[in-house]
Write a structure and sequence with these properties.
Length: about 230
Amino acid sequence: VLYSSVGHAGATGYQAAMALMGIAPPVMKISALVLNIPVALIGTYRFARAGHLPWKMLLPFAVASVPAAYVGGLITLPVAQFKQAIGVLLLLAASKLILKPGTESTETTKRPPLYLSVPVGAGIGLLAGLTGTGGGILLTPILLFMRWAKTREAAGVSVGFILLNSLSGLAGQRHAFAYLPATIWIWAIAVVVGGLIVTQLGTRRLDIPALRRLLGIVLIIAGAKMVLE
């Protein structure tokens, strides 16, 4: 519910919950990607339908991130150092969003240049594949703080980005399908229900300061999980 309301699919949240339940890392990684896909699909459809998904902005990020996420999915490496650094950045981003959420009317944006969007997409895609996430938790604050997108546009681009990276990362981890738990279908029903209920709030009903504060909470959850892990 919390993640889908701000254009995310919840992979870091799923991993945090599974870590608290003592589930093994290989199970966490593949399960988080599987759960990501239906929520990201719902979010992509709803944000696009509401006019908040600029495909031309998404394309350069996705062209680089999708192959990188596939490569990352093939690699099994310790990623603790990566997660610690990213966790600190997410907590810093969250503090700014919560303390100074801003309003849509004060924002002036410019489209990201190709020479930046492609390497940014590639870097996030590789990290997404390595960690079993979709990468939106990193892309959203970059889009906002670089003033490349307004709040709902950033959410829309991020959820499309997450969908593509999750599919690519899952393809790279097809060797890990054996780790999927028998109860994955029950978890999938739960996340789909949450996604269906709340993406409507994110696309139409929440005001901009509330949306940014909600995103800040999401970043705190993800950042704290990554640092403490």
